[in-house]
Structure prediction request, 190 residues.
Amino acid sequence: MNILKDKIRSEGIVLSEQVLKVDAFLNHQIDPLLMQHVGHEFAQRFAGQGITKIVTIEASGIAPAIMAGLELGIPVIFARKFQSLTLKNDLLISKVFSFTKQTESTIAISSRHLSANDKVLVIDDFLANGHAAKALIDLILQAGAQVAGIGIVIEKSFQEGRSMLEREGYRVESLARIAALENGEVRFLE
Ligand code: 5GP
Prediction:
């Protein structure tokens, strides 16, 4: 997706060989027009598969997820993060290790919003080692629902996430794939 790659080239900041900062257009300040294109692209890639819901994780996944939901005409659920959680009956709960914060947190969604009849698309802003995606898949499977695939805005292909998810049989669609972050520059895979 060239418009996304151009934006990453012009406004992304390479913080290290592992971390790209995109807070000018994706996860702090948000570019709505870019998000509209992102939503459109996800909707095209996952069209015609009977997807009934999108699941993402707060906060950075919400913008791309909601635009994809708008295009596909389906609801968007975002998993909420808790430091600790008083168990409640209607919550599906999983644990996720945060790549950026290097801490573990608990994420939850209400079981009222997912059922065994749902076919779910997972969306997130970044794919690194796949922990966030795996925790979201865990919540979806706890509800007895089916995972249609994983849509990622920016994949760091030099990390483990994609291969781990593909090994488990999941379809991964990433709109920008990064081969390396080196010398302060982003090198794309394709
Ligand atoms: P994973 O769970 O796949 O290891 O990491 C994905 C999650 O960590 C995403 O939800 C994203 O918020 C965050 N993340 C991972 N890598 C980066 C990065 O390079 N930059 C930013 N801004 N967030 C990242």
Notes: Helices lie at 2-11, 32-45, 62-72, 131-142, 161-167. The domain at 32-173 is CATH 3.40.50.2020 (Rossmann fold). The chain has one domain: 32-173. The chain is about 30% helix and 35% strand.
